[in-house]
Write a structure and sequence with these properties.
Length: 345
């Protein structure tokens, strides 16, 4: 008796996999498993109802797309981050693309409550699967079903998929090499879009020269002067290069575009402190915290500005708030300790 793993998928996409209409299942996680799995249709009918309302296609119903049951089998052939090989697949957008094949439907679905991830099935359910009859659908011979498939699987949008890959993994510092490849491909696909250049600049490694980063940022700003992301990155690059006045100018421009982003305020606060303009630094440090009360760097910068003004009590109070947000940050704790015990410094 075979032992199957099972994947729970919302309808109508579960059906689309076993009908060989959806060749890619998109997940935020990967798996090393390859081979046949059972496809479970979850109990959610939200997507089915939405497609019926959108298209008027009466096939979007519980009979065509049953819920809360194992509806068939399919094979996991490959799992990879969204990349060039997926660009022509309207069902692929990632971040992890599970290439599916050899889908087959059961003549009689098997009732089952779904679970998260790839889960193991009981001995009795495995036996039911082994004993189940399967069949394959000829979509080209069923115009209404083909119309339903076309409604749920639209044209591919690789540029958007690469952008979403960046949004998924960049904040977590994961898959740097794949993200660089994605940014390069975005530029190839749409050379007159600012987004690819800005993303590539943000991915430049520490050993990249400032000029390399600036080239991409300035190109992004040239293509879209109202795109805040590259303008903010430009301010940070100038700050890191100790080009403080240009950092302030770039940050001020970023604030003009969107005054809700905390980073440009932090840049101005830091640049002013390093220029010895402590009052301005305090003002912008307070504005940064007003924009985002959980932005640790803003508290640290404000604390240092207060300390350099000789306002030790205010500095310690601000650093205490920073430690509430980042209790394991040894640098903040060490700096606060030095302020509290200057004779031991």
């Amino acid at each position: 008796m075979a032992k199957y793993r099972c994947l729970s998928v919302r309808q109508p996409f579960a059906w689309a996999i076993v009908a060989n209409a959806k060749t890619t299942e998109n997940r935020s996680w990967s798996t090393d498993y390859r081979g046949t799995i059972a496809i479970h249709a979850s109990a959610s009918k939200q997507a089915v109802n939405a497609y019926r309302k959108k298209t008027g296609n009466s096939l979007f119903n519980d009979e065509t797309f049953p819920l809360g049951v194992i509806i068939g089998l399919a094979d996991i052939v490959e799992v990879a981050l969204y990349g060039k090989q997926h660009e022509n697949d309207g069902s692929a957008f990632g971040p992890f693309c599970w290439t599916m094949a050899n889908g087959r439907l059961f003549t009689k679905p098997i009732p089952l409550k779904g679970k998260l991830n790839l889960f193991n099935l009981s001995e009795s359910v495995n036996q039911e699967i082994d004993e189940s009859e399967t069949f394959q659908i000829n979509l080209d011979g069923t115009p209404e079903l083909r119309s339903a498939v076309d409604a749920m699987i639209g044209p591919p949008d690789p540029f958007l998929s690469y952008a979403e890959l960046y949004d998924e993994f960049f904040p977590r510092g994961l898959h740097q090499e794949a993200l660089v490849a994605a940014a390069n491909r975005m530029i190839e696909l749409e050379p007159n879009s600012a987004e690819g250049y800005a993303i590539r600049a943000s991915l430049k490694s520490d050993n990249s020269s400032p000029d390399e980063i600036l080239t991409d940022l300035l190109r992004a700003i040239e293509l879209d002067s109202n795109y805040q992301f590259p303008q903010t990155l430009l301010a940070v690059v100038y700050l890191d290069s100790e080009n403080f006045q240009d950092a302030i100018v770039a940050a001020e421009r970023a604030i003009q575009i969107d005054d809700a982003n905390v980073v440009p305020y932090w840049v101005i606060a830091r640049a002013n402190r390093l220029l010895g303009r402590l009052e301005q630094s305090v003002d912008y440090g307070l504005l940064a915290i007003e924009r985002n009360e959980k932005y640790v760097d803003a508290y640290c910068e404000l604390g240092e500005a207060y300390a350099e003004q000789g306002k030790t009590a205010e500095a310690i109070e601000v650093l205490d708030k920073a430690l509430e947000l980042a209790p394991n940050d040894s640098e903040i704790l060490l700096y606060k300790t030095k302020l509290e015990n200057p004779e031991k410094s």
